[in-house]
Amino acid sequence: MADNSSPFKNQSGTIGLPTQTMQNQIHELAKTLPPPRRQNIACDACRARKVKCNQLPGQDKHCLTKNYPCTHFVQQATSEKKRSSAVNRRPRALSTSNPTAAPVTTPTKYSTSPPADTPSPGSSPSPLAPHYLPYANNHAIAFPYQLPHLRSSPHASTIQLLSYLFSPESPTDPASFPHSRGRSPKISDWGEIGKRLEDDAFRVELALDLVEVFFQICHTRLPLLNPAQFRSRLKYSLASHSSPPSPQRTPPEKPVHPALLATVIAWGAKFSEHPLLVMDREGAGGQSRLARTLVNRAREVAEAEKVHRISCVDHVVIALLIEPLQNQSPDDPDGFHGFWLTCSIRHLLELQINHKSVMQNIQDAEARGTMIFAWWMACLADAYHSAYYRRKPQLDDDDYDIDFYTADPTPPEMSDHSVTPSPREQLEGYYRAAHALARTARHMSRQLWRPTTESDGISFEVLCNIMALLNDWRDEHLPRVGVPSDFESEWDFVSAVSACASDATYHVMWTILFNAVDDFGIREINELHRIGPNPNHPIDTHNIETVKHKLYDEALHGSLRIAGLTGVLTSNGYLKLDPAVMHFSCLTAGTLLARLGRPEVSNCIAGLKQYSYAYEEAADEAKEMERAYGAALSGESEINCMQSVVIPAQPAQPMSLDAGGGGFVQNGNGSSHSSTVDHEMASIPQDSSYSHLMYRR
């Protein structure tokens, strides 16, 4: 008979250990076992992109879905190195007749010495050299350029960086040509362009030219850099120093951050009229393959330099410059839409730039000015980005207490408003207006982009509140920062685009609100259709329809105004030089006009086609807009919840701006006319500012 009184017998009668005792013994046993061996299963492409090389059930691996070659050269080289090391550690008899071959080594990003066949720091590596390709090749994996702690001199690292930026794409580069995937790049892929880029002197000359294009065109809209300081640092980075400076000499200049230089060069390539870029566009149907490559390389360098991980002033500026540089479509799989904006905001908060006390303690006026502008650029971009792409904003109204809109407070003698406002006061007025609109955009995003709003609809009270906020902003700020009725003769490219951008940013908010109501509906009306009338809570459907009519009128007026401004900027060639400031407004307004079958959509289509000179996705957006317009003309309505208030398109008639620049003059029956503001912007110079901004041969 079994003895069940023993503490070492369980209920089944078999002998075992108590639970706690068993866990203790297993824990002690685990301490004596060797650690598990980590399996390196990631392929070369996934390893370079730092993603898991997993295969989900019913799907291809990550690399295969991206059309990247699934090679394992790094894993093979690592295994070979371990095997060779194990052989070297085995005891063997000394012999001089059969020397052992040197083990195979693979350079990595953590290497303390370059591979044996890496060119010396002072030499000029070929752009096609395997060790300077960014990803996998038939020999080994090497980082595209040396990390900061491995660089022997600023000159060597800058020359090496330019060699990487201007080399043909690798098979795993997102900018590769389709016919070059799966094989190493060849010089014939770029034809005459590749041959010109083989020369070190030509690469330096091209880089300097693209930097100047950035400062002539992009810097006027994104003034995050000091041009003189950047040029001085770049000159120092390109200068060759054979010997280190003596202690008596002045400390050397700080070299340009590699990711910053790569980003500035990529910006310049978007708008440059350099003969090499012109030849590149002519050979690729109007799209620059080199410019597309430089954008991808700038992101790769920024990731290699850990711009997204380490908080410092340079990384804030780099992140803010990369965000508008890349593809503006949120559906682009390689764009990481909003990623770099998020990084810049995180860095700014980490540096506590959102605190007034910290900002006031920055002694260097240059650094203080840069950080203040960077903060407001990130703050405004976050608010508008949330409204544009239906996301919650990262910043809240109480996340900062900065009330300065410039680097230093305005002196008392400059605060007299009886005279003409100074440029500084005008700048402060612009930022105050933009900040007020950004706060309204934040409120819109928090109220509209909710799962409950998407499922139940927008509360009528919330809708009325948002419309009131937009009307208040128009009355207070639009006459000062929008497009006036009569232009001054001295207006140039920057003045025209700035005023048009401020004007369009306000008016596109009405279109965004219209689209939200059209997609989600109004909650009270949705409940009425879903559960029927409620005697305890009657719904004033007449008042709701009146508000919907007002929203439709404002959205249509705003879209027509944006179309008119877009038409004038396009006729002057300004959108060809615009770093995507008007892009979203043009796209959103044009899409609504296309859905309504309005002929004024042609201005937005022409503007997007001009935008495609620098942003390739704009060409596809123009084709989709043409399709929507054709569908609307054929009777296929794409209007949903706002269908009850949409007025059929009327024949186009002249329209003029009102005196305040905040609305449009309508005809007697309440329908709006088509927007034509060309005569009001005719005084903008046609060539005085445009010609000198383009590349001079």
From TrEMBL:
<dbReference type="GO" id="GO:0003677">
    <property type="term" value="F:DNA binding"/>
</dbReference>
<dbReference type="GO" id="GO:0001080">
    <property type="term" value="P:nitrogen catabolite activation of transcription from RNA polymerase II promoter"/>
</dbReference>
<feature type="compositionally biased region" description="Pro residues">
    <location>
        <begin position="116"/>
        <end position="128"/>
    </location>
</feature>
<dbReference type="Pfam" id="PF04082">
    <property type="entry name" value="Fungal_trans"/>
</dbReference>
<protein>
    <recommendedName>
        <fullName>Zn(2)-C6 fungal-type domain-containing protein</fullName>
    </recommendedName>
</protein>
<keyword id="KW-0539">Nucleus</keyword>
<feature type="compositionally biased region" description="Polar residues">
    <location>
        <begin position="94"/>
        <end position="110"/>
    </location>
</feature>
<dbReference type="GO" id="GO:0008270">
    <property type="term" value="F:zinc ion binding"/>
</dbReference>
<feature type="region of interest" description="Disordered">
    <location>
        <begin position="76"/>
        <end position="131"/>
    </location>
</feature>
<dbReference type="Pfam" id="PF00172">
    <property type="entry name" value="Zn_clus"/>
</dbReference>
<dbReference type="InterPro" id="IPR001138">
    <property type="entry name" value="Zn2Cys6_DnaBD"/>
</dbReference>
<dbReference type="InterPro" id="IPR007219">
    <property type="entry name" value="XnlR_reg_dom"/>
</dbReference>
<feature type="region of interest" description="Disordered">
    <location>
        <begin position="658"/>
        <end position="683"/>
    </location>
</feature>
<feature type="domain" description="Zn(2)-C6 fungal-type">
    <location>
        <begin position="37"/>
        <end position="81"/>
    </location>
</feature>
<dbReference type="InterPro" id="IPR036864">
    <property type="entry name" value="Zn2-C6_fun-type_DNA-bd_sf"/>
</dbReference>
<keyword id="KW-0479">Metal-binding</keyword>
<dbReference type="GO" id="GO:0000981">
    <property type="term" value="F:DNA-binding transcription factor activity, RNA polymerase II-specific"/>
</dbReference>
<dbReference type="InterPro" id="IPR050797">
    <property type="entry name" value="Carb_Metab_Trans_Reg"/>
</dbReference>
<dbReference type="GO" id="GO:0005634">
    <property type="term" value="C:nucleus"/>
</dbReference>
<dbReference type="GO" id="GO:0006351">
    <property type="term" value="P:DNA-templated transcription"/>
</dbReference>
